Structure formats: structure tokens, C-alpha cells
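Structure, all two chains, one model.
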Amino acid sequence: MVGVLAPGAAAPDFTLRVTPDQYLSLRDLSGKPVVMTFYPADWSPVCGDQMALYNQVLPEFRKHEAELLGISVDGAWCHEAFAKDRHLHFPLLADFEPKGDVAKRYGAYRMGEGVCERALFVIDRKGVIFWSYLSPIAVNPGADGILDALEKLPAVVTS
Amino acid sequence: MSLLRIPVTPADHVDGPNDAPVTMVEYGDYECPFCGLAFPNVKLAQKRFGKKLRFVFRHFPLTEAHPFAETAAEAAEYAGAHDLFWEMHDGLYANQDQLGLTLILGLGRALGLSDLGLRDTIAQRRYAAKIQADFLGGVRSGVNGTPSFFINGEKHAGSYSYQELAAAIDAHLQAVPAR
């Protein structure tokens, strides 16, 4: 089995639909740490829903100037309805066409099922993967690993 | 396995003796229906283990999903400032199907709390910093949803059914040398 991209690898750039009429590229966020969370599907049923948790932890991510991106193979309209229903305050990217293409490049695609893995990446300000984690698909990995990684990120070099 | 990173301190809401051999910490949300389902199971466990169990409750409100979770947590803290935390806590969970301002203010009155004081606390979010500190401490300990339990510092991997909670507490009791 091929694992998720490991620390030290350059984070593959991508351009994906973030709303039905807008696109977002990873390179647009250059200079900021980026937290990418691949997840299998919108509309997860429980209180412990991973996206609900990250939504709540968002102010902590922002303290590290980090941008949070959710990504799944759901389409932009589905994402829009999901984000509205759950009051999500961060972008959800649609890895929809070609389906799962970005997830595949991050080693975070489940071939048989056609969905993203539950995988986390912290990308540093220069676009290099600083930390990654592949969670068992049924387990919400929480946010402790992400916050630990953001704390360990080298501080911004000011000149 | 996740470990509890924030030790239990006098600032916590504690039910049971401080020298109990087993401490169970719950991270909960007053509006989370699963916490509501876990509530009677915790009570049963407290009844069964008596002085051998110290129970601690910390706030983990998912306020974006649950509009009354934070208000309820504020009310519990306000009651706690008057040594009535557990009375409010129990009232909130026992009546969770009616959770809202009417219930919260009604519980406050029934406990003899100042109506104005409770309203002001809610309006000013007087305990927001404490509630947020509970939440973040939980996040750093790997809490990924509610309810989450830590038994003697280890995240409880099983369900919150009475049987599984009691079995986990029992296992820790066996591991502690008798005194």
C-alpha cells in the first residue's frame, strides 16, 4: 500500500473549485501554513464530526496564521449545502473532476470506494509538507496532531 | 492512545473524593444528544463505584452546531460559583429535550440562583475564557467529539454504555494496588 505523502515532500499544487463559481490554488496560500484535511464524504452524522470540530478549533489554527482546507470528492454544490448547514467557516474543496485527482497525488485516495482517505497534512509556508497523518477511515483523528505540528513549525523569518 | 494532558486541579468540577483510586474525566456538551445518553450511565457508574470513583466534567461545547451549548455551560459555571454546579449539570442533562433559555432560567430559579445574575452571566459570557480553556485542553488531549472520557488519564476507547464504562473503571481499579 502506498502511504500518504511524507514530511519533506513538496506539496503538489492544485486548483480546485471551492464554490460553484470560484477556484482556489494551493500556491495562492504561499507564505502561510496550510492545514489540509482530506475526508471521505460530506454529511457525516455524529456530533463528533471532524469538520464540526475543526470549525470550532479554527481560531486556534488562525493564531498560527494557518489556513484550513477541507477536501473531498463531493461536488461544489454539495459542499456549499454542507458548509451552510454546519456553519463551516473554512473552504471545502471539490476534488470532483477528474475525480480524486488531488487526493491521488497526496496518496490519500481509496481506490475501491472512490473516496478520499481521512488524511491530514500540515504544509509549511514554503509549500513543503511538514507533517502528515493517515487516520483509520472510521476514526475522527481530532486536532491535537495538527496543533502540535503547527506549534513546531519554524517561526516566520522577518528581515 | 490519547492521554489527558491537563491534570485535574481545584479549578475543575469534581464529584467524589480527591484520593479516589480512579478518576474519570468527561468532556461534554450540554446540547449533544450523545452526552445526554451517557448521562444516566455516568450516574450509574458513580452509584456503583461510590468513593472509589472521582468524576470530573469539563466543557466541550460545539457552539457552531449547538446554539444553546455555550449558554448552558455558562449557566453551569454560574451555578458552580454558588456551589451548585452539579445541581445545574444534572438539571440540564435530565431535561435536555427542552434545552433553551426557558429551561436554563427555570433551573436557575429552582436552585435559588439570582435570575438577574444568571441573565447577566449569559449575556456577558462571563465564563467564556474558562469554557474555552476546557475546550482547548480537550482538543490538545485528542478529544474529537463528545462525550469523550479519560479514565486515570487514558482516553476511553470503548462506548459510553454503562457496561463499557464500568468495565473500564473496573480494569483501572484492578490495576491500582489495594491500600
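The first strand of chain B starts at residue 13 and ends at 15.
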